[in-house]
Amino acid sequence: MEKKWRWRVAEKRQETPQAVTLQLELLEGGPIAYQPGQYLPVVRTFHLREERRAYSFSSCPGVDALPAITVKRIPNGLFSTWLVQQVREGDVLESAEPAGRFLLPEQKPGRLLYVAAGSGITPVLSHLKAIFQKKDWATVPVRLLYANRDSEHTIFKKQIDAWIARWPERFWVTYFFSGEKGGAHAEHAHLNNGLFEKHLLAFIGGQTRSSARRELHTFLCAPMPLMRMARMTLRALGFPEERIHQETFTPDVRLRSREIDLSRRHRIVVTLRDGQRKEFETFEGETILQGALRQGVSLPYTCKSGVCLSCLARCVRGEVDVNFVEQTKREGPGAWVNTCIGYAVSEVVELAL
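Predicted structure:
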């Protein structure tokens, strides 16, 4: 079964008028491992229904004594309103295991470019803490383009400014404020493709030669239109897809469900991380995750829309249709499939977490 964790809120710190950091102390079963850039799937039952939301760690293993997540309240946000306005120090939260693939490269990169907006800075902060403690990465240049309304609503600005002062020879930041003029390292503008291309080219020396394209890793964590613009600009300039990393938490509401046929069924066999095997059935038109939850089989998930990757499982046998917004991909043995948007095609499907 899926592992659940219980945390005590050891400290609640106000970052901006609408954002807080929750420092968490594991109550039992620890320690728990996570990597810079990963997130914690927070679990809570609202009105007899279990809900989950993914919140990135702003802490970094080996740097911070306790894990911490940072949450920005969004209007009418079910979880964010609860965490920002109602949760107090000493309260207990429940979560699934840390997850996420917004990770630093295993090998030392040539350059690192970050594009963030609002609370998208949270996993970036975790990255930066890790980067600045890696002695063998001491010469890696780091560039941050960070968009917000104004300085008051810029999460972690004090910490970022301190790093700018400490490492002026390797860490450069431009704040883009839509509602404020002036300020150090700031531009009064929306970050558009023209500004992005200008700062990108300045960072790599003005040329998109093959060596510059190979050495740059770009990390994007911002609203979808901003990330789409940055990705398209990078691809148009010839930067390889595998060096563009993106974190997305907002469910894609454009996903279409399929019509369920109760007369047709598929048998699903899942090998869990602890070696246990679980078997259940899905109806035709029902996702693998929907079928599992309907029958009380606990599989990992967070967003239920194919963006967070919490639910990824490797296909061992059979075929699965993965129903993305843009296209449906039929996957077979060896492929990774999203169980939350994955529909069994073959009579039997075997998966491994």
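Summary: DSSP finds seven helices and 20 strands in the chain.
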